[in-house]
């Protein structure tokens, strides 16, 4: 068993993290509010600047998405049995502070909206030890039939679960990175 305040990382090591004040309330309100996916920055992810290369941010955010989909019920068993999957329609990444080799990472996921075929959510990547926000990834995913390769409605039990999560997440503060537009007029979301 993993002690409180610890999460197992993708490489099996333990990483200590400091949850934000509202995360405890989220965990109590619903068992799947924030996927606490964790991993450690690997040596092969480091670029010439000595920090994690921007391409690997997408890799680890994709791993966090896999965990989020599993937690909402769109796991491998469901996808295989129903012959469905999800495609990413749009993704936005914001970078706030660098992470370096060996740094533990912790991800939370917040449901922003959903309908019968789409899921709009945001991941936040935190330094697992220092607790600072390192990056965010806002996504729109489409539920797809593997037979037709077109958008398809989600199963009722998935929509019910998303509804439960949505009711809880609607009461949370919206991250300032959500809905950002790229441009020189855009205000920074970090100090």
Q: Can you put this structure into words, describing what you see?
A:
By secondary structure, this protein is of the alpha+beta class. It has one domain (6-169): Roll (Thiol Ester Dehydrase, Chain A). Helix content is 26%, strand content 29%. The strands form two sheets. Strands 3-5-6-7-4 form a five-stranded antiparallel beta sheet. A two-stranded antiparallel ribbon has the order 1-2. Strand 5 and strand 6 form a beta hairpin. The longest helix has 19 residues, at 54-72. The chain starts with 5 loop residues before the first strand and ends in a 22-residue tail after the last helix.
Could you outline the blueprint of secondary structure elements for this entry?
Layout: E1 6-8, E2 14-16, H1 21-29, E3 37-40, H2 54-72, H3 76-82, E4 84-95, E5 104-114, E6 118-127, E7 133-145, H4 156-169
Antiparallel strand pairs: 1-2, 3-5, 4-7, 5-6, 6-7
Biggest sheet record: 5 strands, antiparallel
The averaged pLDDT comes out at 85
CATH class category: Alpha Beta
- Tally of individual helices: 4
Radius of gyration: 17 Å
